[in-house]
Amino acid sequence: MKQRIEAQAVKFVVLRLKRVRNPDVVCIERLEHFLREENAHGVTVLLAGVRPDTAAVFANINLESWFPAAQIFPEKEEQYSSTMKAVRFALATLRALRSRRRKSRRMSTSRPNFIILFERRRGIGR
Q: Domains, the chain, ranges and CATH?
């Protein structure tokens, strides 16, 4: 996935965590490493479908001290509602960035911003 993010100049990744239940230390460590690394490369990762037990783990490790709460979308009753909220957030952010660029200068013809929906059942990035 990291190669695809770099190759396509992805700016947003929606990581759907709905099926993540009771993540262990290794899972949380890999997720933290991924979030920090992509953030350092200018990629915004949005966590969608975060279940209450996963949110409790995030609170225990104090995730919100370095990861913006606005980028965490808790699981809702409706199917895919948190994922759609995350996608809408990414699209709105992209529109705002493009609007600011247009005001300051003409936007180039290339559009390197993409959204990837990603879900793994056996850990992050395996």
A: 2-118 (3.30.750)
